Amino acid sequence: MNEQGKKSQGTSLRVAESTDLMAFLLAKMGGMSRTSIKSLLVHGRVSINGKQETRYNTVLNKGDEVCITTRAVAIKSLVHKALRMIYEDNDVVVVEKREGLLTVATSPNSEEETAYSILKEYVRRENPTGGIFIVHRLDRETSGLLLFAKNRDAQHFLRDNWHQIVRERTYVAVVEGTLKKPSDTIVTWLTENPKSKRVYSSFTDNGGKKSITHYKKIGGNIQFSLLELHLETGRTNQIRVQMAAIGIPVVGDRKYGNGLSHEIDRLALHARVLAFEHPVTGQTLRFETPIPKEFYKLTKN
């Protein structure tokens, strides 16, 4: 996106019965606080029948159209070899992370550069009081799409409603060997050792977290298979642990598989697609990245 390509996006709501604007937005905006709604009004992001409205106690009549806009922000200055800006507006940021970069530091005193620290610095160059807030994470070794919030209300909405608002979350992976079934659903229960941080998988309910992954083979050769994976649940290391559990570990997985392959100098796992409901407008945003070229090289015939 550039300055010329800057656009406003939003959602339109129709009033079914007479009420005031605050009551209407509290009912329609999926758990937003009164403070957040007042912020929308103050910043001119609410209109009634095409006219901007800033008063929260304005009376609405049946048939009125209320519009909430999310102004997309022109991406100006985020230039980093390990992080690429995909989308930004007043409430959320979507980036593509390269493998090797942590989402957030693992200890409070760490000075290691992370996706979080890079974005925090970027936001504060534009707005010294601005912030970045964690919504979900990717493993250090995994590349792909990451979502961050730009305010506490957006973060709380996204986190509290994650399973309801995420419409699609698709990964691609290269695994070792071939599959008995070209597509299948894996259901296991995952438990994590608090000391080693290693996750273990059980095909029977052992009190762990039920974890569901759907996979489909989309390419491959005798040695490697290229898979598309849809997460129904999003547990720590879920794909890596479940692939290892069924005998086809992700290529390059030093924790659960056979370690680095001479064919590729990374973990062959990439978060390719992310679609979610916007915390303010309710609009579904969908983002898709290319499959890494090295994945194709591994699986070519």
Keyphrases for this structure?
single chain; about 300 residues; alpha+beta; Structural Genomics Hypothetical 15.5 Kd Protein In mrcA-pckA Intergenic Region, Chain A; Pseudouridine synthase; 3 domains; 11-stranded mixed β-sheet; 4-stranded antiparallel β-sheet; 7 helices; 17 strands; about 20% helix; elongated; disordered N terminus
Helix content: 10-25%
Structural class: alpha+beta
Low-confidence segments: 1-8
Identify the CATH homologous superfamily of the largest domain: Pseudouridine synthase
Radius of gyration over C-alpha positions, nearest whole angstrom: 22 Å
Total helical elements: 7
- What is the number of strand segments? 17
Provide the number of structural domains. 3
The H/E string reads EEHHEEEEEEHEEHHEEEEEHEEH
Tell me about the largest β-sheet: 11 strands, mixed
Overall morphology = elongated
What would CATH call the class of the largest domain? Alpha Beta
Q: How much of the residues is beta strand, in percent?
A: 25-35%
**Average of pLDDT:** 87
Determine the N-to-C terminus distance.
37 Å
User: Architecture of the largest domain, according to CATH?
Assistant: 2-Layer Sandwich
Could you say what the CATH topology of the largest domain is called?
Answer: Pseudouridine synthase
